[in-house]
Amino acid sequence: MSKKRKQAASSAAKAAPKDEKDNPVLLNELLSADIVKKLKAQAEELKKAEETRKEDIRKQEEEKKKQEQKRLENDFSYLLENSDPSWSKHK
User: Fold this and answer.
1) What are the tens digits of pLDDT across the range 26-58?
2) DSSP 27-77
3) Which of 18, 27, 47, 54 has its CA 20 to 30 A from that of 1?
4) What is the pLDDT of residue 41?
């Protein structure tokens, strides 16, 4: 008899967590609609700010590359080392 009682108690304990897992309470259900809207708007603003920051960084890197290339084009030793040794093409 004690085995039956233990099995019944354990099966009842197992049944309760399944019900909780089937119907979890979501955070947006606990918060008011106004707060949820504010949080979504704030998330969008943060995403836009991150995108603009990344775009600014990309533009700065491009500008640095352009400046470096311009500096190298004015450097005679760099041009001499990286030029085509076949001068017959330029006649």
Assistant:
1) 776 788 888 889 999 999 999 999 999 999 999
2) HHHHS-HHHHHHHHHHHHHHHHHHHHHHHHHHHHHHHHHHHHHHHHHT-HH
3) 18
4) 96
Amino acid at residue number 37: K
Confidence of residue 90 (pLDDT cuts 50, 70, 90): low
Angle among Cα 33, 36, 38 to the nearest 5 degrees reads 110
Nearest CA to 78 out of 67, 86, 69 is that of 69
Look up residue 85 and give its DSSP letter: S
Tokens found for residue 57? 């960084």
Label residue 69 exposed, middle or buried (CB < 10 Å: 0-12, 13-18, 19+): exposed
As a dihedral over the C-alpha atoms of residue 59, residue 64, residue 66, residue 70, rounded to 10 degrees, the angle is 160
Q: CB–CB of 82/88 below 8 Å?
A: no
